Amino acid sequence: MPNNKTVVSQEQIAHQYEYMQFIARMNEDKAQVRGQRPKAFTQTFGCQQNEADTQRIAGMLDEMGYEKTDRTEDADVIVINTCAVREHAESRALGNVGALSHLKKARPEVTICLCGCMVQQEHMPDKIKKSYPQVDLVFGTHALWRFPELLYRRLTGDKRVFDTSGDAAGYIAEGLPVLRDGGTKAWLSIMYGCNNFCTYCIVPYVRGRERSRAPEEIVHELEQLVADGYKDITLLGQNVNSYGKDLDEQIDFSDLLMRLNEVPGDFLLRFMTSHPKDASHKLFDTMAACDKVAKQLHLPFQSGSDTVLKRMNRGYTAEHYRELIAYARSKMPDITLSSDIIVGFPGETEEDFEKTRTLVAEVGFDMLYTFLYSKRSGTPAAEMPDDTTHAVKQARFERLLKTQDETVQARQNAYQGKRLRVLVDGTSKGTEYPLTARTEGGLLVCCAGDDLKIGEFADVVIEKTSLRCLFGRSV
User: Fold this and answer.
1) N or C: where does the chain have the smaller number of CB atoms within 10 Å of the terminal CB?
2) Quick one: DSSP state of residue 73?
3) Residue positions in the annotated binding site for [4Fe-4S] cluster?
4) Into which family does the record put it (predicted)?
5) What is the pTM of this model?
6) One domain, residues 260 and 138
7) Residues 213 and 348 in one domain
8) Domain of 442: which CATH number?
C-alpha cells in the first residue's frame, strides 16, 4: 500500500533551479573579478547512499557555477556529508569540522556546510550551534533537494541556516542534477529510507520511511548511465527487497531487475543492501535468469544467534539464513557472497558469539564486513544492559577475523589457474600487475596485459592469489 511520502513537484524542482541560476550569476561576477571560478569542496562519510547523495550535491554546485577542488584551503564552499550509523564515522566528521575553525578565521567568507544523517539526529543541531560556530549551513537528509535555496539564503545575508526538519515519511525528488566522478562505476538509488527499525540502527530515524522511485525513472537513469559509458552499476536502497511496496503499480524488486536487465548495453548490475527477512527464492531465480545481473549477493546476517537476532529485531533465524544461502547457491553455484556482522551486541554471550563464528565457517563468505557494536543514542539497543567488557568484545572480534581469513584464503586459492571475465577499472601500485579490475562477483584482481584497457571487459587467467587480491594476466 502507498505510504504518505511526499513527491516533490517539478514546479518545486524548477524553483530550486532558479536559485541555482541566481548563485551562478553571483559566481560569474566573482569570476570576472578574480579571473577564476569559485571552488567547492565535498567530503563524504558513510555508505554508498551518502556517496550518491554527495554526487547530487556536487551536481547542484556545478550548476551553480562552482569548480570542483580537492583542497579545503582553495574552496569557497565546503560541504561535509555525514554518517550516523557508527560512532567512529561521526567522530571523524566532527573532527574534520573542528579543524576547519582555523580556515574560517583566516577566510571568514568561506561557507562551511554540514549535512547528512548525523545532523538529522534530534540532538545534533543544538550541539553544532553551540560547539561549531564555524559552520554556516546545516541541512538534514530530508532537505537535500532544497540545498540551492538554503545556500542562497546564507550567501545573501542569513547568518546561519539550519534545516533539519522534514516529514518522517520522507521525500522523493526527481530531476536534480548529478555530477559523478566518471570511470566505470556508478550508484543508482532505487529507493530511500527504512521501515525495519533494527534495535541498533539509527537509519529509520534519520532517513525516514521506505519510499520507492517510479520504475520508469530508474530505467531512464540507467539508460543514461549506460549511454555515458558506465559499466558497473550498483542499485542502492536500505533494503532493496522492499522495493515497490509503497507504489500503486504492482512491482517488486525482482520485477524491477527483469526490467532493468532488458536495457541494451554491455554492463553489470549489482545491488545492495538485501535484508534476509525479505529475500526470496523469486529474487534468486531472477538473478540466475538475468545475464546482466552480477552473481554477487551482499546479505547481512549480523549474528548467528537467534536470541541476539530477536533482540536486534531482525525478523529471521539463523536457520532461515542458511536456507536462503543454500537456495541461492543451488541456482548460482559460482555466486560471490558477502555479509555484515556485529560483534558485541548488548547481552551477547560466548555461546551467542560461537554460533556466529560457526555460521561464518559453514557458509564460506568471500567478503565479510565485521564491526564492533556502536551504541547509537535514540535506538532501543542503547538502553539495553551490557556487562561484557570491551576487551572481551575485541578478543571475539579478532577470533572472528581469523576464522574469516582462513575461509577467504581457501576460496581465493581455488581461483588459481582459472579464466575469469573482469572489468578493468583503474591502476595499481605494482609494476608486474599495473592495472586493477573486478570480477562479476566483485573480487579485486590486479592484472597485466598489453591489450587491457580501463573501462573495458576482458578475460584474464589467474596466476597467483593472496588474501585480498587475485593476480591475473590477459588471455
Assistant:
1) N
2) G
3) 47, 83, 117, 194, 198, 201
4) Belongs to the methylthiotransferase family. MiaB subfamily.
5) 0.95
6) no
7) yes
8) 2.40.50.140
Residues 6+ apart with CB under 8 A from 181: 55
Q: Where are the alpha helices (DSSP H) in 111-233?
A: 117-120, 124-131, 147-155, 203-207, 215-227
Per-residue pLDDT of 50-73, as tens digits, reads 999 999 999 999 999 999 999 999
Reported as a single tens digit per residue, the pLDDT across 124-157 is 999 999 999 999 999 999 999 999 999 999 999 8
Which residues are 80's β-sheet partners?
43, 114
DSSP letter (8 states) at residue 172: E
Report the alpha-carbon distance of residue 274 to residue 190 in Å, rounded: 13
Domain boundary among 163, 191, 213: 163
Mean local confidence (pLDDT), 70-93: 95
The H or E element containing residue 104 is helix 101-106
Helix (H, G, I), strand (E, B) or coil at 328: helix
Q: Which long-range contacts (CB under 8 A, 24 or more apart) does 142-146 make?
A: 142/166, 142/167, 142/170, 142/171, 142/208, 144/53, 144/56, 144/57, 144/115, 144/173, 145/8, 145/12, 145/13, 145/16, 145/171, 145/173, 145/176, 146/16
Per the structure, the complete domain to which residue 393 belongs is given by 177-413
Q: What is the pLDDT of residue 1?
A: 42
The residue among 467, 397, 390, 471 whose CA lies nearest residue 430 is: 471
Per the structure block, which three cell numbers stand in for 100?
A: 576547519
Query: Considering the domain boundaries, does residue 116 fall inside one?
Result: yes
**Pair 397, 311 in one domain:** yes
Annotated binding site: 47, 83, 117, 194, 198, 201
Say which residue the cell 536486534 belongs to: 312
